[in-house]
Amino acid sequence: MNTTAIYPSLRDRVVFVSGGGSGIGASLVGHFARQGARVGFVDIADESSRTLCDDLERQGLPRPHFEHCDVRDVAALQAAIARVAAAFGDIDVLVNNAANDERHALDSLTTELWQQLMDVNLRHHAFAAQAVIEGMRRKRGGSIINLSSVTWLKGTPGLPVYVAAKAAIVGLTKALAREFGADGIRVNALLPGWVMTERQVSRWLTPEAEARLMQNQCLKEKLYPEDIARMALFLAADDSRLISAQSFIVDGGAT
């Protein structure tokens, strides 16, 4: 029995998700689709993205609109957003989710790697917002949800550029919320803790790491992508209509 919330205001809303082919992004796509939203998303992983679309269609849900796109290519990203808007209508909800938390060390950092990491973890948030904003203004409202991370609150070692980008996302969120608020557009940041995606489990979840995680969290359960998606649903729905410029932490009480 499903005991989670249904948001009537999300039915027929047009939602765009970056990095929607796997992990948190795939959960976002699925959760919005189950709310009756019309969902478009981009990813570089074609096979998993098409499989996700097939699975949702088999469940009797409208097939999401998938576009292959590397979010580091701003022109391609904005063109993909335009095609989703042409297919479904102006975007109501933008979820800037795509990111890459590949580990890296400051002592071996190059300017090229810095730029690559900033492009995939920060830059596309601003330019995706730029691409949807006129449509949201036409509708006199919208919701932009920027995925940040608790890593910047903790100063997590081993990925300094990623941490810097995730901190900057919160600043960008504040600025855009102020800039677009007069048009009824809300902008919020969502800060996940350690979420048990397939990538995280296969690369970094050891018994020792899990023990430390459970020691640090108030709630002694692991986080999963659906825990993040459900908060995003709330921030996209009219239930949060007067919430903007805020940061929401979903980490089991670890921070």
Name the overall outline: globular
Classification by helices and strands? alpha/beta
Order of helices and strands: EHEHEHEHEHHEHHHE
Q: Give the spatial strand order of the biggest sheet.
A: 3-2-1-4-5-6-7
Quick overview:
By secondary structure, the protein is α/β, with parallel strands linked by helices. The protein has helices spanning 23-34, 46-58, 74-88, 111-139, 151-154, 160-180, 198-204, 207-216, 225-236; strands at residues 14-18, 38-43, 65-68, 93-96, 142-147, 185-192, 247-250.
Word description of this protein:
- This protein is α/β, with parallel strands linked by helices.
- The protein has a single domain, classed as NAD(P)-binding Rossmann-like Domain (Rossmann fold, 3-Layer(aba) Sandwich), CATH 3.40.50.
- It is 48% helix and 15% strand.
- β2, α2 and β3 form a beta-alpha-beta unit.
- α3 (74-88) runs parallel beside α4 (111-139).
- The model has no long low-confidence stretch (mean pLDDT 96).
Give descriptors for this structure.
single chain, 255 residues, alpha/beta, Rossmann fold, seven-stranded parallel sheet, 9 helices, 7 strands
